[in-house]
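fold-stage: in
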Amino acid sequence: MDISMFRSGHLQLKNLFTRISKLQKNRISSKSHSELRILAKGIALLLVAILFAWIGKNETENATQVRVLQTQWPPPQVLNGVLKQGGWKRQEKVDLSSILKNHPDPFSSKPMIWESNDHCFLYLILTTEPELWSCATSHNSTHLKLKWIKVGSGYEGINRLAQIMAPFAKKTVTNIDPKEIRY
């Protein structure tokens, strides 16, 4: 045998041992890396859980606020004040059958505020007896052509109603020339 073969085998064996030691070092470092990976995954999942909890909390608060606004009604004095300030008058004796001919849900018992398409009539279902409010310019001929729009219920409906103004009757004003006034 030649000595060069022995040296070559010795180098190969030496390379094998160095590779084994490197693998062992890598395995130890890969264990520490795997622990870091597990810890990083845990922290990431914790942050995602916190994000989802925060989104859920906000959505629940918003849904609860909307539901409260739609189900809670103001006192009757506030409602009457908003309606009178908006220009509507309560109709005591009126035939609801002709006015509610085109109403989408006239027999509903759910509390709701409806308005006509010309903002001249309001149909309020608040108690067992519905109320009809009309503006000053209501005509009997328009009853047949009314289309009803749902305003809403509760404080939300009252807030929308406060933004709608009834059309007021035009006042006929005559201009008086000051020169024509005789003392």
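fold-stage: in (second)
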Amino acid sequence: MSNLSIVKNEYSHLPDEELLQVAREGIPYLSKHHFKDLQEELAYRHLDDALANSNKAYQSLRNALALSAFDHSTDGIFAAAVWKLIFEWKAQGKSDEAICALLAEQQIHPEYANMLVACIEPQLESSIEQLKTAAFAGYIPTLVGLVTILWVWVFTLAPWYLFIGLLLLVTGSLKLYTVLPKQRKLQALLQQIKKR
């Protein structure tokens, strides 16, 4: 789409219909900077509400920008704790409205609460991917530890190799022990949400 290369000052020269076409068809391909420029122009012309109601891609990107602002404006530990609460409430079967009310009780602004609830599914997917990476980081020392122990056993090398192998095995196993149940729990919750 040729319109995607238009810079901010050229957005203002586009007719409304052409600007809406750029927004409908091009949002997934815009950089964050171009998306903000387009969003500002749509808001200036009062076209953003109509587009937001009809365009799911626009809404999800708008939520993503708000979510990014939330994550950057809060301490990482606080954001992780909030997401943990949201996931627990969702696993308990609470509705989106109930979760928003519970977040408001936790002194989270209603606008952020609504935005967080709208982003539960993508955040779950992101958390699952992070846990997969963490699990991989547990598999590696476990396997290296096992290989080292077998190597020592077969070739009767120095006993400190055995110690290193055991240490790696225990470290990797503990990592897997903590990560895998969380990953399974979040995957089950994601499946439950997708079925609804």
